[in-house]
Amino acid sequence: MDSPQYQELGLVSQEQQQIDLETVRATWKFLAGLSSNLTLVGPCLFSNLLGLLNVVLNILCRKLLPIGRLETVGMVLASIFAVLYALCALWAYGRDIADEIRVDDADRTMIPLTEEEMQRQQLLRLLQENQGKKKSSAKDVFTNTRPLWHPPGARGIYGGAAIAQSLAAAMRTVPSEFAVHSMHCYFVLAGDSEIPILYHVERVRDGRSFITRTVQARQRGRPIFTTTLSFSRANSGGKKKLEHATSMPDVTLPDDSSADVKRRLYNAGGGPFESHKLGTVNRDSSKPEDKRIRRCMRARGNISEAGGHHAHLSALAYVTDSYFIGTVSRVHDIPRFASPAELKAVLNALKNPSDLDDDEISRAFKELKEEEAAELRRRLEGALSKAEDPKNKHKHKEVGMMVSLDHSIYFHNPWAFRADEWMVTEMESPWAGEGRGLVLQNIWSKDGTLIATCTQEGVVRLKQDEPPRSKI
């Protein structure tokens, strides 16, 4: 019994059969199966069009040709289209295999990976990315050559030292035609003066006009200080540019030939900087935010030419943290050491008794004494009678904690000054509250050029009154 398909096509007639019907039947079955399989293996629009064309031609031949010739033509057409099917399928299959190979070579996203294999490939990619940076990374770690100063009463090393050394480390990774224009710092943990500090410099970006670096200072593997610095190429602003700057206040700089100045500088000790007070603006104002504290300072001696201008920039960064956060208490007329008891507590907090012989600590005490002695005398005059009055007891204020949190420096004219010449600073505190205080500082060179603007926020907490104890 012939299938309905073959009966419909008229291939079951034996009267006009020119070739073996069984051969035709077997051939048609083979071609039908082959066409079906090829369509599944290589699906494409061209293959489907060929199949449609095959059906149309068979219908036309059935209507136009005799049955014998129809069988011959149908077999030839089926063979031709089978070959075309095969070519299309092979082309589509080869294209899919090539695409799969390309994807596999690119990132193997087409192949399901185990978690262990994915981690291994991620590690390999990281190693490949870092391979080109290995030489520069090894050179981008620096350390201090001698112990850093631990100020009396401070929780850790002097912050200006970490600022200056981080800047020096970053500048060693930057071309000489670039100069720092901003530096944003965070004091994370108190630094230990007895443990070396490792300064890790990361080359974040190297552009045509700007370069970005981050520096992380570490002790015992933990970050104690971190900063982000930006450097700009010299004269990159073009010939036409906007310019303005705050003028230096009208102050009189110390006369180095004056005997009084020589005596003051001699008594200041042998520290790296010389400092001289220039007075306080609006000193008697009832508003702390209106007061301006002025002083001048410079590096002691002459900075060697071998260090280049980088040495002057590092020296400037070092001095920006001097007397900075203390401005918050000074504008409130609260000295850092308000009483002999507090000074004694600071001395007892020194790490080693030998620290008392250190020239830096000796200089610090002398500078504090010079700065606060007059203010303390003024406050003590006539204050004994008031202190005995119970009504005024609650008004007494003493600093309980003072710690810097962050520090920012904007370098305006990095090539227009020398740190071993007098620099004028003016500090103000526009806000204090919530146990914190904010300080702003402008620094001018000797000739009146604004060379830096600084900001700092820190923790400033007062000692709290003890609650009354029960007499029972």
From TrEMBL:
The chain crosses the membrane at residues 40-61, 73-93. Residues 279-460 form the Acyl-CoA thioesterase-like C-terminal domain. One of its GO terms (molecular function) is fatty acyl-CoA hydrolase activity. Residues 147-231 form the Acyl-CoA thioesterase-like N-terminal HotDog domain. It holds the Pfam family 4HBT_3. It comes from the Eukaryota. It comes from Aspergillus arachidicola. GO terms for biological process: acyl-CoA metabolic process; fatty acid catabolic process. Keywords: Membrane, Transmembrane, Transmembrane helix. GO terms for cellular component: peroxisomal matrix. This is Acyl-CoA thioesterase II.
